[in-house]
Amino acid sequence: MSSTLRTWRRLIMPDPVRAHRYQSLPEQGPKVLFFSGGSALNKISRVFKEYTHHSVHLVTPFDSGGSSARLRAQFDMPAVGDLRSRLMALADETVMGQPEVYALFTHRLESQASEGVLKEQLQQLVLGEHPLIACIPNPMKELIQTQLAVTQERIDDLFDLRGASIGNLIMAGGYLNNQQELDPMVFLFSRLIKALGEVKTTLDASFHLGVELEDGATVLGQHNITGKETALLNSPIKHMWLNKGLRKVAPINQYIADDRKGSIEGADLICYPPGSFYSSLLANLLPEGVGRSICRNPNPKVYLPNLGVDPEQQGLSLMECIERLISTVLADAKVDENSFTALDYLLLDETYDYGVIDLDRLREMKIEVIKTPLMISKVDRYDEGLVARALLSFT
């Protein structure tokens, strides 16, 4: 009979010994799991791979804006933009990696070019004649051409290629070419770019986000929630769910796959990082099985809140964000005697004004506040190196 126990040690913040040890042998680094989406964590991820090659990034497939929206509308598929950008952040950028593949995956077609020019550029890529793909050796080149050819064949004549990410087009072809499943394609492209970490969507499903506002209105679609592609919401968000489609309110959910469950339960550290509070962070916690997997993990869980202004957090103080984060986890957790906490530490920069912090309430919730230098001087932005070393100090 085995049991899971929680152990304690003296925490040094930051811990230079641990940072040095991990940086010396990143291939033996800890399993740090991030729930995130969007580009907010990409710079931190680029630094993080210097310390460990075992970070796990669960990103949202629910985005409905940008060039991902066109692919989603065309093929009824999950969003792949955040997946691609995080893979690129974790790519091996040394001479041992694949810089040609990295350049291709991060390239976007011109946003001002004519339809005819863009179709010709896509044709050159499919034929392997475009400069970005001509330099890639076989069999990798042929593999990429195959996926692009599938996308080219399946898009209709009205598909808008302006500003399209080549990486997204390649990944869409891989999805269509693998029985409409993301995982085989993600595994393949992770190998192609020699990703120094693991990236997965929380769910391999084509769902969208829906929210109810405090004024009773409902809004469907991530692109209508963020306040970036459309106007700010007229009222704060009261409740969020996963929705089937964008035309009507149709709540839906699905259990996470066993490998996601294993990644969450087996992580040495779970981090709730900066990013759009609802559409990037809480969205990742909605699928069934996420909350209970978090609470089955005895290791530290850390919340690193946003700096500056997040349009999605209108009306929410930091304390309310913490409460909402925990309630989202516990809604799925089915807490029992074998459960652990949803959140252990609030990691803050020592000088930034996050608003009112109720220390008594945090003690009641068994959450410890850790303050340490995390920011670039006089700029509302976290320093990637300081954040990486602070997080690694918990492991």
From TrEMBL:
One of its GO terms (molecular function) is LPPG:FO 2-phospho-L-lactate transferase activity. Coiled coil: none annotated. It comes from the Bacteria. InterPro entries: CofD (IPR002882), CofD-like_dom_sf (IPR038136), CofD-rel_GAK (IPR027591). It holds the Pfam family CofD. This is GAK system CofD-like protein. It comes from Marinomonas transparens.
